[in-house]
Amino acid sequence: MDWRQYASTESIIPIDKAFPLAAPSKSSGSSGKSSGMFDPLSAGITAAGMGLQGLFGAIGARNQAETQASIANAQMAAQADAIRNAREIQKGNLGMGMFNTIFGAGTGADLEFGRQLAAKRSEFAEFLPKQMGLGREQARWQTAFELSPEARELSRKERMGRLQETIAGYMAQPTGMFGPIKRINIEALAG
Length: 191
What we know:
6 helices, 191 residues
């Protein structure tokens, strides 16, 4: 379609055809003369129509306002519920944190101590006599070893070696300065 067709004067509808009730009447009363004014009946019907339109428009606007208010109230209620739920979650988290702290320092530590105590008791009840018996046997073996002739000979050799090292340290400087010096009988010193 072309826009020019709407711009022509032929497409303009005269007001009396568009709004027949609002157009001036051609006959006024029984005389048939035109007064140039609107017909009172037409004007009354038009006014009544406009009044009803305003009334229904006001009712529609009121309904629309009520709808918008109910939507806003529902949104505010949802936000309030979300805030309330968030507060409840925060309270729960705080309570769990306090519970963990108290349980960890109080009851939890007592339970852990009780478990450790039971473990030590079972360890001592089962293994301590064996350890004590083994320790006693080890002490007996050590004493028997120290009193044996082989252990005495080994001890004497260790003492002789330490004496030789000590004497060699003392004799190194004079031997270097004055030459060989008479050897000391270490056997007599070791005893």
